Amino acid sequence: MEPVEPAQEPNANLRHGRTALRLLTFPALLLYLEGALRLYMGMRLDYLPVILPFALSAGFLLAGLTAVLPRRGNGILFRLLALLLCLVYAGELLAKRILQTYYPLSTLATAADNRLGDYSGVVLKAMGENWAILAALLLPGLLLALLAGRLTDFMPCRGRYLAAALLAAAALHMLGLGTLALPWQGDLTPGQLYRMDTGTDDQVEQLGLLTTLRLDIQHVIFPVDRTPDRDFETMDPGTSGAASSDETGGEEEPEQPQIDTSPNVLDVDLAALGRESGNGDVQWLADYFASTAPTRKNEYTGMFAGYNVIQIVLEGFSGYAIDPELTPTLYKLSTQGFVFSNYYTALHYTSTSNGECQTLLGLYPKNGNPITMKRTGQLGTSLPFTLPQQLGQVGYLTLGYHGNYDMYGRMTSHTNLGYDWRQYRSGLELEMQGDKPAWPQRDSYVVEASADDFVNSYRPFHVYYLTISGHMPYSDNRVVAPYRDVVRALPYSTVTQNYVATVMEADRALKCLLDKLEAAGKLERTLIVATGDHIPYFNVDTLEELTGKKFGSSDAIEALNESAIDFDVYKNTLILWSAGMTEPVPVDKVCCQVDILPTLSNLLGLEYDSRMLAGRDILSDSEGLVVFSSRSWRSDRGFYDRYAQRFTPAPGVEMTAEEQETYVGATKKRVGYLLDSTPMIVENDFYSLLPQYTEFGQSAQGKD
Questions:
Q1: Buried-exposed string 487-499: b where 16+ CB fall within 10 A, e elsewhere
Q2: What is the C-alpha to C-alpha distance for residues 85 and 89, in angstroms, rounded to an integer?
Q3: pLDDT in tens, 284-314
């Protein structure tokens, strides 16, 4: 029996009651925190049967931890754990509000590297807007830290109370695992999410925040098996079934030139690659790519062969802000080149970094950690289909610029892509305020400071700009200042006026670039490609002002809750223009960022394998497809809402119920494969294996 200390606690029953209260405190605290977060964020309550046992289990386990140290140590640990839990929930809520995603512990290093202190204004604004829920989340921890000694007893509890806590934790955890086997409905279920290292937002909603954070750590130590099923034959007939490399799409007619419609593929022995790899993931990828239909060459193949290529990713850009008077260069380039009327910049995990992933790699990013683009640099992943790799191998000068610090490890990842990468402290002169770069940098200044590096080059060049002026918050800052008088006359809120000013700055940067190219005699043979990394997701009200249209709940969009939005919020502008084009080319196909790389590869007449990219050549005859973060999707044939599990055919598309069921099932399968394949490609360095099975890899990797 435990010794009684009469001088401190004469009533043994009271002491036992206070000890029992200590063991119940953490389960109760976690129920409160999960409930408060869930109600405030508008998450569904039907997953409570899963969330409650896992939360209670964790609570009893934490309670047990405070029962094994000496009395003073138990008290200190109790207070620290209570404060830490409340801080974690408050911090994750802020991360969700500011960055549109919860931040698992494995991303803390990235957050630190990204100098989040530079965005203190955004953090303070979010804290002010969410002060009530933050106070509600933090108050229990503060009260427990201050009053715990009066409410509970911290004597070591090595007897029945400790055993009861541990047994309760184990039993409730088993109960939680049992609830995963319930017949949950939907495309993603709690059971699936429990075994995934992607889909953080869905995990929080269906499993609870603390369980999501635990699984994040667990999956770092014990990686999940990512290999999907192998149901390739059920993929949509219009997008699967590799075509013969000698097909031309019709009988040859000698009297008129024929368009080469052979597939854009490499002569790679995928069967041998998979068979000889000894790696299950590599075998799966080889079989998957072999089962995927390639896109075909077309009338635009090689249209810009040998041209200089300038590619620009515009920070926080939405085409809804383009105006013929305010942004004349953007208007000209978006209406006089290829004109894409159904182009989307779907928002994915880690916004800018994985916006770049889609644009530069032609792959959908992993919806979780590690961050795909950063990971390619960490691993030195072979990426032979990227433009700097392909064009660098044929003698192009390849340069990249970003007017900021080294964010998301770009110095490593973009150098690995093949760029001579230049940013702050690495070859790019920036405007300074004291001993620090001015914030935000003006895009026009970055162009002025860098254009002489390439415009007079005797070599063809490929240049990539990641802009910065359009970064939130849209305050009355140094970027807005030159345009202030103009935008203040617009019938919008101050924030929207400031946002328009940042787009005007991007327009000025483009005008500066075109002027320098023209002065150097390079404009006629330069292809300009520009798009946004993502919409201004923190200011959806701005897009509603610009369009006069409601996109659903603004709060939902800010939280990346795609169950309550109009997906047209993601509609955007893709610029694909050359001064040599004599008339605009309208393109109605549904398309998105992942389609840019294969489209450019075909336009430039480069050798690549269209089966091995998630994107498709927009100008080919393949069906268009956009995959959103939630696994909802839009194709040329209609829109699938993952939450409602409902497919709505596009205008003019007629399908029987049976055809619709077959099509939706096949496309859902394809979407899953597109998303699952990216981390498998990166982690297994799949493309590096190609040189052994095709001649292409020898040159693409710079080997003899």
A1: beeeebeebbbbb
A2: 6
A3: 999 999 999 999 999 999 999 999 999 999 9
